User: Which sequence fits this backbone?
């Protein structure tokens, strides 16, 4: 069972990145998928999540209108499109798959750095 996050990198303020999270060893179709981030010296925070069927999404106030979460259950992936990036978006981004407290998996994180 593994979640592999990718797509992070260095981008200038106002730029865009798309993060991807691929699952292996299990099917994502029954899981709520989320993206969290942790900036240096700060606690991990929830950024966005999407229901198992993709019909319901949530965004934190800090990213609403700039980030878009999506999922492709056939490809076993979830993505986070990030636009108009700001220096305060700099963080390690983690994907999470959760079905129940027992079935709760984390990816290894991908670093996003936004320069001003």
Assistant:
């Amino acid at each position: 069972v593994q979640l592999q996050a990718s797509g992070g990198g260095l981008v200038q303020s106002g730029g865009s990145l798309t993060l991807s999270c691929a699952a292996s060893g299990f099917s994502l179709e029954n899981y709520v998928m989320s993206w969290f981030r942790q900036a240096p010296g700060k606690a991990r925070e929830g950024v966005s999540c999407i229901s198992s069927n993709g019909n319901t999404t949530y965004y934190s106030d800090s990213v609403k209108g700039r980030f878009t979460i999506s999922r492709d259950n056939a490809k076993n992936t979830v993505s986070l499109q990030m636009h108009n990036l700001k220096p305060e978006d700099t963080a390690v981004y983690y994907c999470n798959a959760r079905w129940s407290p027992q079935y709760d998996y984390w990816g290894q994180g991908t670093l996003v750095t936004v320069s001003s």
Observations:
- The mean pLDDT is 97.
- The two ends are 37 Å apart (CA to CA).
- The first strand starts at residue 2 and ends at 6.
